[in-house]
Design brief:
By secondary structure, the chain is α+β, with helices and mostly antiparallel strands. It has helices at residues 10-15, 101-108, 121-128; strands at residues 3-8, 31-35, 41-45, 58-63, 69-74, 80-87, 132-137, 142-149. A hairpin with a 5-residue loop joins β2 and β3.
Length: 154
Amino acid sequence: ALFAIVALGLYNFYSSKWSPLSHSSSWTTEFVERQTASNLTYYVFDGSLEQSVGDTRQHQLIKLPNNMVVLCTSDPDSAKAAASLSVNVGSMANPKEFPGMAHFLEHMLFMGSVKYPTENEYTQYIANNLGIYNAYTGTSETTFYFSVANPAFE
């Protein structure tokens, strides 16, 4: 099954007028602890989520150990898998002595990481798997996203 992941900072999720939680659900009491195959802890929301009548996809909230809440959506009819991450830091958070720092750091994500240590290895992986990637820096948030063919989604 395909999982599209959108990660939202808890502050934005709590302060938003819209929430996927039903009115009787609680953020603090309805997460159940789970373990991955490699013994990493995460929490699955066990309450009910509001969903549009015509929406046939499956949705699940997961809370990571760092308190980030992730909305996972499974759409078996989609040919690609995608993920998006938004963080609550944008260009207005640039230090006065380093204008453009948020935008610079946005680009650094694509230059290498622990998993993809050589320059452009990540972008090559995306391209080799029929995917796209991009990011943008707003005034108060930075968003990263990518898509790949389903078998390549890790």
